[in-house]
Amino acid sequence: KVEDYDIEEYESMNMKEAEQKKEEDNNYFFLASYYIDDDEIVDPYFEKLDRKRLNKVFADDEVAKDDLLSQRQDREYHETLWDMYRTLIPVKYRENITGLDLITDGYDGVVAHVMPSMDDPRDWVLSLDVLDSGVNIDEVMKTLIHETAHVLTIEHKQVPVDRKYLEAFDEEKDISSYRNKCKTVFLKNGCARKTSYINQFYNEFWKPIEQEWTEKKVEESEEAQIEFYKEKHDDFVSLYGTTNVTEDIADTFTAFILQDSKKVKEGTELKYKKIAFFYQFPELVKMRAEVLSGLYDVSKTIEQQSGD
User: Do 110 and 46 share a domain, yes or no?
Assistant: First the structure.
């Protein structure tokens, strides 16, 4: 059973950017990739494993290593993971997700992440950790909702794709001209539409704190993040939400899906007002009901499997 969501206990996993993980984290292994066609995963590609690095990383954890080796090319298991996600999130809310990657950094690390597709920056690829996805189901569900929230709030209809800007960003060129001509919130992905969820969220909740957040360099230092969260504990649903507006809206959206609406209505702290922000959009209220229905179906499936 997926437990009831408790905002006081919820701490999102510190999901680092995938590229950063690949470059900096020696524990990160890319295992397999699939295309998504007609809501099925197809055309698998299996990466050749660096056995030397694998043995070194998992020298003290033979169980994790054995699990990784048995799951890396297990198409039936990969289908099960995809089934879990597509049951949780109805297809109309993930039409931009065109690929599935299977990855791992061992148990208890990154559970999942999303990245723009290398084929087309308007599309997205969902990455799932094969080890974590099979164990802590509560964390997996929360993380999948969080990652879907990223796609929902920064996909190309919300934050239009400017290929010249993305090229300049990737090549680490000066992007100040793009930032300066943006009249809304400027994100790593580009300039958000005025009517986008994230721009409205930014105007209401981030504009008042942005100067202080910038001066304290909250995004750059874990210590600064912890300190900022201590001071503004009532303003954020999680410590991770203080990272930036992109992570805050994703974690707050997760709380919107999972938190009891009565508790949100009665809550006086700013974090509850941030959750309530999403209730003004009928399409998101509808999405919430559908995702909760999907969550129930996933829970029943897991119960049945554990009972077999």
Answer: yes
* 79-125 pLDDT per residue, tens: 999 999 999 999 999 999 999 999 999 888 889 999 999 999 999 99
Contacts of 116 (CB under 8 A, 6+ apart): 122, 123, 124, 125, 189
Among the candidates 158, 184, 210, a domain finishes at 158
Contacts of residue 302, Cβ cutoff 8 Å, sequence gap at least 6: 137
Per the DSSP assignment, residues forming a β-bridge with 116 are: 124
Q: Is residue 293 part of a domain?
A: no
Do 41 and 107 reside in the same domain of the chain?
A: yes
pTM for the full predicted model: 0.90
Q: How confident is the model at residue 308 (pLDDT cuts 50, 70, 90)?
A: low
Number of domains observed in the structure of the chain: 2
Q: Tell me which residue of 165, 168, 215 sits closest to 186, measured CA to CA.
A: 165
- The Cα 113–Cα 104 span in angstroms is 11
Query: Which run of H or of E encompasses 68?
Result: helix 62-71
Q: How many residues does the chain have?
A: 308
Q: Which region, left, alpha or beta, applies to residue 216 given φ > 0 means left and ψ of -120 to 50 means alpha?
A: alpha
Return the pLDDT at 12: 43
Decide: 202 and 245 in contact? Cβ < 8 Å.
yes
Residues 249 and 136 in one domain: no
Element at 98 (helix H, strand E): strand 97-104
Each residue of 1-56: pLDDT tens digit?
444 555 544 444 444 444 444 444 678 999 999 999 999 999 999 999 999 999 99
Residues 93 and 122 in one domain: yes
How crowded is residue 187: how many other Cβ atoms within 10 Å of its Cβ? 20
3-state secondary structure of 33: strand
> Is residue 2 in a domain?
no
